[in-house]
Amino acid sequence: MLDVRALVKHYPTAGGEPVRAVDGVSFEVRAGELVAIYGPSGSGKSTLLMLVAAVMRPDSGEILVGGHEISRLGDRDAARYRLHEVGFVSQTFHLISGLSAIDNAIVKLVGSGMRPKHAQQRITPLLARLGVDSQAERAPSELSMGEQQRIAIAKALSTNPSLLLADEPTGNLDTRRSRAVLALLSEVCREQGTAGVLVTHDPEALGYVDRAYTLRDGRLGEHRPDDTHLPLLPTLEQT
Ligand SMILES: Nc1ncnc2c1ncn2[C@@H]1O[C@H](COP(=O)(O)OP(=O)(O)OP(=O)(O)O)[C@@H](O)[C@H]1O
Ligand SMILES: [Mg+2]
Q1: Which residue, 139, 125, 163, 50, is CA-closest to 147?
Q2: Which pLDDT band, with edges at 50, 70 and 90, does 224 fall under?
Q3: Mind giving me the DSSP string for 49-115?
Q4: Coil, helix or strand for 233?
Q5: Atom of ligand 1 nearest to the CA of 48
Q6: Minimal CA–CA distance to 182: which of 153, 158, 160, 222?
Q7: Of 41, 65, 227, 237, which is least packed with CB atoms within 10 Å of its CB?
Q8: pLDDT surpasses 50 at 182
Q9: Which pTM does this prediction carry?
Q10: Measured from the CB, is residue 218 less than 6 Å from ligand 1?
Q11: What's the 36 CA to ligand 2 centre distance in angstroms?
């Protein structure tokens, strides 16, 4: 379903060497599979997801989704691809401040032509499952970070996307909510045949995925299970 080949994205910096944020990354995700990309802060996780979501263009390489190259789509086609194929949980949520939580969650359904009343009925069980149904009428500014994150997850899942891209979807959640969200993402992929990519630095998330890769300095490797508990920063005793 998703086939990423030799993907490269370097950011220019003022005066210095470019940052090799994504540096020759290749991987595949099949329909129905949830794959983790596990790496420390700054390793290129968000850059990689933004490339696959066609929010940003790579310098080189290919991104095939259902056999179609998406990295060279024009702006309109890229917007259509994001609306109809992709569920993207961005690290920064992208909620619209003038809309209630539930209206944010149904933005994509309404954008696809569904009547708002119908879309609200359809999204409500998902909001309940995520534990944010009682916050549905509030503005994003009246929600905690974890609640905003769960609204963004509901929005991403609302259209039954064929590709789910989740950037630290449990970054603001407590352990119980994290587990519930991870179980939901894994279930959605398995039951709806969605290809899922979960980027994270949370080792707990690795227990919910079919396979995992590690990402370090923009380079992808096979994840070895004994990597999981490696401290990503030196411990106090080591410094
Ligand atoms: N617009 C930019 N210009 C220059 N460098 C950038 C830019 N955005 C990101 N970078 C650099 O690219 C590298 C990868 O950043 P990215 O945001 O993809 O990492 P990440 O793994 O998502 O980190 P985190 O876990 O903190 O979210 C980092 O070294 C970062 O400093
Ligand atoms: Mg990031």
Answers
A1: 139
A2: confident
A3: HHHHTTSS--SEEEEEETTEE-TT--HHHHHHHHHHTEEEE-TT----TTS-HHHHHTHHHHHTT--
A4: coil
A5: 18
A6: 153
A7: 237
A8: yes
A9: 0.92
A10: no
A11: 14
